[in-house]
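fyi for ur records
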Amino acid sequence: MAEPIVVAMSGGVDSSVAAALLHEQGYEVIGVTLQLWGKDVCTSAGTRLCCSVRDALDAKAVARRLGIRHEVLDLEDTFRASVIDYFVESYRDGLTPNPCIACNDHIKFGSLLQYADSLEAPLIATGHYARVGYDAPTGRYTLSRAADASKDQSYVLFNLTQAQLARARLPLGELNKPQVRELARGLGFPTADKPDSQDVCFVRDRDKDGFLRRELKVGDESGPITDTAGHVLGTHRGLLGFTIGQREGLGIAAGAPLYVVALDQPRNRLIVGSREDLMGRSLIAERVNWVSIPPPTQPLRAWAKIRSRHEAAAARVSPEPNGRMRVEFDEPQQAITPGQAVVFYDGEVVLGGGWISKTVTSDEWRVNS
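which gave:
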């Protein structure tokens, strides 16, 4: 009897091919499309969102072509509480969130696993580009980068637990995107040439600041824009939505590029500076999850990524009290941002990761230190 596996089918090409590969391998594939966000957003014209009516229909068409079962799972309330509220509250608190990680933790490898349990299916799968392995000597499941470095999504999966990895299958880990699209074309899938989703999936028309203001029911709260010495350079319309390293939207004419280097919430002050002012060597990470290795008790060397598109940099990672880790880079890194994740690698293997709580610096102007 075929082993049941629940496959998250978003209506995109990646999850379509993931379902097809598992079906070909002999699993009893149950395709599930997650209804995450209200129809008023999901039908927004001109924006590629992750839960549109078209996506659900495309997923159903792929399932029909494969001859597999397909269902729609309503997770709007869970998505609201675990992803959208987290996103909004993080910006309210002056942090820069990563909603993709929250979605993976709570939705794709949380609620979907619970749904699989209700169907007595032992496994789940997604279209993520990453690889799950098993290290027999340690008895641990491991998470590694995808074969296609340009599509690797291991960064956003760092928070998975051993129990989740044991039940997860990632069929695209050894493939690149052109191969995936070619497979989809060969199978006649309507998703074969569908563009990838972009930006934050639940923000329509890419207006993040407008979305945040509507959610928090706030208007403009203007305040000073200053340089690192405290000189006023201009006025902002509200700190909400600004993030460390941002260059666009400052509204300041200057002889050299200026970047957001800090948010001083108590004084409603936006601090800007040069690229050099963005550089930092050290950070503190909290809520650290060790994926492929047990929690270390001694400092270790690793390659650390401080955002999804950051090129991993050599660092020393040292245990701190209360499960925190101090990360000290060999070379200064640009725009270390509280609220983002830092993920540790040993070659291809994801060791673990945590959430950046603060940068460590001697610069007195840094309000996050």
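Confidence is low (pLDDT under 50) at residues 40-48. thats all i got for now
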